[in-house]
Amino acid sequence: MSRAGIERLLRDQIEQIWGKGRTELVAANYADDVVDHMPTPGMPAGKAALADLVHVFRGQVPDLIMDLHHVMVAGDHGLDLWTARGHATTPDGPKPVSFSGIDMVRVADGQIRDLWHVEELLQFEIQRGAQHGAFGVPLQASVIAASTDYAPDRHAFVPGEAQFSARERRNFAIARRHVVEIWAKGRSELCEEIFHPEVVDHNPAPGQKPGIPGIRNVLYWLREAVPDLVMDIQTYLVDGDWIADRWVMTGTHTGGPLMGLAPTGRSFRINGMDVARVDEGGLITDIWHCEEMQQLRVQIGDG
Predict the structure, then answer these.
(1) Judging by DSSP bridges, how do beta strands 230-239 and 284-291 pair with one another?
(2) What angle do CA 134, 124, 206 make, to 5 degrees?
(3) Are the C-beta atoms of residues 14 and 7 closer than 8 Å to each other?
(4) C-alpha to C-alpha distance for 142 and 136, rounded to whole angstroms
(5) Contact 218, 229 (CB under 8 A)
(6) With contact defined as beta carbons under 8 Å apart, do 196 and 285 qualify?
(7) Residue 228: CA atoms inside 13 Å, Cβ hemisphere, count?
(8) Minimal CA–CA distance to 271: which of 33, 159, 103, 107?
(9) Is the model's pTM score more than 0.85?
(10) I want to staple 15 with a disulfide (CB 3.0 to 4.6 A). Which of 19, 166, 170, 202 is the partner?
(11) In this predicted model, what pLDDT tens digit does every residue of 95-149 receive, in sequence order?
(12) Is the pLDDT score of 14 beyond 90?
């Protein structure tokens, strides 16, 4: 399918189906055997369930507005980056909500065949009134040890790689350094080499400082709380000066507090995606990311 065709499917997904409730487009835009690799808990499989989910969620947020920030296309894959906002219906009356999400799709024969998606559902629940604690406790770099030497992206798929321009090949290398070296291996000393001094994290954790110090603190909090953290990077997307990745994170909460919870020794497995923009000099100026934090809290919680 052409680039324009994939972009249309992405825009329809956010602006028309979710933004305007046009669920009749699900039948045309999704294959009969479409696979949702990250289904909403409790929802059945199949594209009929996608239409049902739209109706259910729009019922919870009747004035839902979907802001589509960017779309990426690489090979037969596409990605959209968005923010949902409106007023959620609660027992205490309507409450304003705003949260982000990232979707990745694989397209074949003019239809979406595979779908991956991560939304900031924990933020949504907090805005509706759920209680939460601080993400972590700021620590000193000296307490963080780099993870063991492993290759977290050894099986990663890179759609369209053969067609990358020279600039895109450079940006692919930056994408790998970002997620492999900093987040998977904990090499915080590389932050100044990878991030612009005024980098903007558009999805900061509660209490996170701005810029590189804030990104570094989140890395410390996570490493202290989950000493055995392991990441499996599954896909990279590169489209001009935009880079993205999709990953699975596993670990055991045996260290410091995380999300307001004391260590319980419970293991977890969550999905996440990152999107970033790279400048002329090869530094990341903006980053968006979504992780299954709601699932993380459920999995490490004490019940």
Answers:
(1) unpaired
(2) 20
(3) no
(4) 17
(5) no
(6) yes
(7) 10
(8) 103
(9) yes
(10) 19
(11) 999 999 999 999 999 999 999 999 998 888 888 887 665 666 655 555 556 666 7
(12) yes
Tell me the residue ranges of DSSP E strands in 141-295. 195-201, 230-239, 242-252, 267-278, 284-291
Give the list of residues 6+ apart from residue 163 with CB closer than 8 angstroms, or none: 75
Cα(239)–Cα(225) distance, integer angstroms: 34
Backbone angles phi, psi at 44, to 5 degrees: -70, 170
Distance separating alpha carbons of residues 17 and 61, to the nearest angstrom: 14
3-state DSSP assignment of residue 45: coil
Question: What sign has the CA pseudo-torsion 293, 295, 296, 297?
Answer: positive
Contacts of 52 (CB under 8 A, 6+ apart): 43
Strand order in the sheet with 30-36: 30-36, 111-119, 95-108, 77-88, 65-74
Instruction: Return the pLDDT at 87.
Output: 97
How high is the pLDDT of residue 146? 62
Instruction: Please provide the distance, in angstroms rounded to a whole number, between the alpha carbons at the two ends of the chain.
Output: 47
Q: Residue 219 in 3-state DSSP? A: helix
Residue 232: enclosing H or E segment and its boundaries? strand 230-239
What is the full DSSP assignment across 120-167?
Answer: -HHHHHHHTT-----S-----GGG--PPPS--TTTT-B-TTGGG--HH
- When pLDDT is cut at 50, 70 and 90, the band that residue 207 belongs to is confident
Q: Write the single-letter amino acid at 158.
A: V
Spatial neighbors of 265 by CB under 8 A, at least 6 apart, are 252, 253, 254
Segment 233-248 mean pLDDT: 98
Match 């007023």 to its residue by tokens: 87
Percent of the chain with pLDDT over 70: 93
Two tokens at 22? 């046009």
Report helix, strand or coil for 208: coil
Q: Would you call 285 helix, strand, or coil by DSSP?
A: strand
